[in-house]
Amino acid sequence: MKKLFTQSFITLLFLTFLGCSSEDSEKNPDEETPTLKTSIKINKVTVTQMSFKDSYGAAWDETNGPDVEIRIRDAYDLKSLKGPSVHNDVSPAQMPLVWENITPLVLPFSSMFFVELMDNDGLYSDLMGPVYFVVSDYTSGPNAYPTTITVTRTTLSTLTTTVKLDVTWE
Ligand SMILES: [Ca+2]
Ligand SMILES: [Ca+2]
């Protein structure tokens, strides 16, 4: 009788131990749940290629180089950012043009965005070249969430613009 009692007690201890250990393995406090990315932030804009002549073959400004500024906007103009500075009288030797430390523009995934290059002429500016991209094109596949996005577009058959965006995903 005493032997049976001892065996039962040991079995009970063993089962209790098993119960505890299986409970412990269910929770791992160090495990992080992956955060879902929902927006893209543009931190830097680099223009690596642009046309120094308009579609008629004329210079953007008669006596000196174009005064280049950038604007980023969505299709409805609801979210837009104008570059903080103008690169004045740009010559080909000054390429590429860089806009750094811009107020980051946070864009939702669902939209299409335009990056416009303007020759600032005061009240009216010449649109030198727009490029555009769709954010959701960069959120899937093997190269999802890249740190740089490069877009090239040729408008009016002669004006080729290439823009590189340094981005972070949040
Ligand atoms: Ca001009
Ligand atoms: Ca100028």
Automatic annotation (TrEMBL):
Signal peptide annotation: 1-22
This protein's record includes keyword Signal: yes
Keyword Signal part of the UniProt annotation: yes
Keywords: Signal
Name of the protein: Lipoprotein
Native source organism of the sequence: Flavobacterium limi
Record lineage: Bacteria, Pseudomonadati, Bacteroidota, Flavobacteriia, Flavobacteriales
